[in-house]
TrEMBL record:
Keyword Signal annotated: yes
UniProt source species: Oryzias sinensis (Chinese medaka)
Keyword Secreted: yes
Cleavable signal peptide: 1-18
One cellular-component annotation, GO: extracellular region
Location of the C1q domain: 76-212
UniProt name for this protein: C1q domain-containing protein
InterPro entries assigned: C1q_dom, Cerebellin_Synaptic_Org, Tumour_necrosis_fac-like_dom
Pfam families: C1q
Subcellular location(s) of the protein: Secreted
PROSITE patterns, sorted: C1Q
Amino acid sequence: GQPSVFLLIAGSLCGTSGADMTSTTLLLTFISGLTVAHYAAAGPPEPCPFDPCNVLKEINALKEALEARDFLCFRINVPKVAFSARTSKGGPYGNIQDDRTLTYNAVITNVGYAYNPATGIFTALVKGLYYFTFFAHGGGMDRIQLQLKKDGTVVAEIHDHPSNADTADNAGNAVFLELEQGNEVSVTLLAKTAVWGEGFVTTFSGVLLSKS
């Protein structure tokens, strides 16, 4: 009967698209009209296990929930996007004559597969707020300079000058970015700079925090 229809609709609330939710709203409106017409034509009410007025209230409550796009359902439907990768290049890497995208070629985590270890580029799957970190280790005699870029524009940087006073250095930075679907984020290794390219010390990570 009608109660089973209501339970089915309520149970599927969080798994429907915009078009499906519109169709469900229309269905609820139709059921509401039928309920009113039925009890208007039926004359004096007979004993019944449920009150038609309460049924109409439940229908209206479900309609309001669908039209409001319940926030919890929105959160459930946010895709999972997260990655961490490291360099695996056999030792010191860099000191070349031109800038180039640093490929973090050893993937640790790649939920959603938005990061490409062959190119070193992360591509935003959806519009939203993202968080990125990048860290580097290097020899004290090498200059470390990495730039985090969004579609080729620098948004964060790490830089350590060479020194005779120490044998190794570490550097890191982080940034929140609002991205559109298709925006690209990567790390550039600047010319005549170097990082330690082996182990677990030179890394690049990112995660989708919220969908816009």
